[in-house]
């Protein structure tokens, strides 16, 4: 009889312990590996006089200095999209110091990948907790970084949000997914 009671107690303990371990796993942050595709340590946004070369181009003259890419430090880009990359490069001012991408082409595996351009910021880490990415960034006087990361399969079809956060916890900018791996900025 004491043996049966002891076995039941152990069984309950194992069940409770498993439930607690499962709960902890849900609330922990998962590190999301990322690739640095391109980096410049010396780039700065060009002056308005230099950038006017782009703004005077008929493709961009309606946007001019109000272009999102010119007024923001974080840009979403579809990996392997030559046209989006060209537009981001021109409108952000990165055209003045283009670095060749070192990331592999993702032609057959494009959907689960996200590309972020961090202008005057350095990406030091990406984590995922529930459905919120935290991209830790450090402000820089100069430079830019283009990174790519794979969308974790644990998200399934759930849409995530993304926060750019400084090491002291300040949120610099927020984005939301409109479909897997496609992000748009959230209003400030």
Describe this structure in words.
With about 190 residues, the chain is of the alpha+beta class. The protein folds into 2 domains: about 1-30; about 30-185, no CATH class. It is built from 4 helices and 8 strands; from the N terminus they run αββααβαβββββ. The termini are far apart. Residues about 5-25 have low confidence and may be disordered.
TL;DR?
By secondary structure, the chain is α+β, with helices and mostly antiparallel strands. It folds into two domains: 1-28; 32-185, no CATH class.
How would you describe this structure in keywords?
alpha+beta, 26% helix, eight-stranded mixed sheet, 4 helices, globular, 188 residues, 8 strands, single chain
Low-confidence stretches: 4-26
Instruction: State the share of residues found in helices, binned by percent.
Output: 25-40%
User: What count of domains describes the coordinates?
Assistant: 2
Strand proportion, as a percent range, falls in 35-45%
Give the class from helix and strand content and strand pairing. alpha+beta
State mean pLDDT (0 to 100 scale): 86
Helix-strand string: HEEHHEHEEEEE
**How many β-strand stretches?**
8
Please give the count of helices.
4
Give the radius of gyration. Answer: 22 Å
What's the oligomerization state?
single chain
Largest sheet: 8 strands, mixed
Q: What's the topology here?
A:
Layout: H1 2-27, E1 30-31, E2 34-40, H2 48-55, H3 68-71, E3 74-77, H4 82-92, E4 113-129, E5 132-150, E6 161-165, E7 171-179, E8 182-185
Parallel strand pairs: 5-6
Antiparallel strand pairs: 1-4, 2-5, 3-4, 4-5, 6-7, 7-8
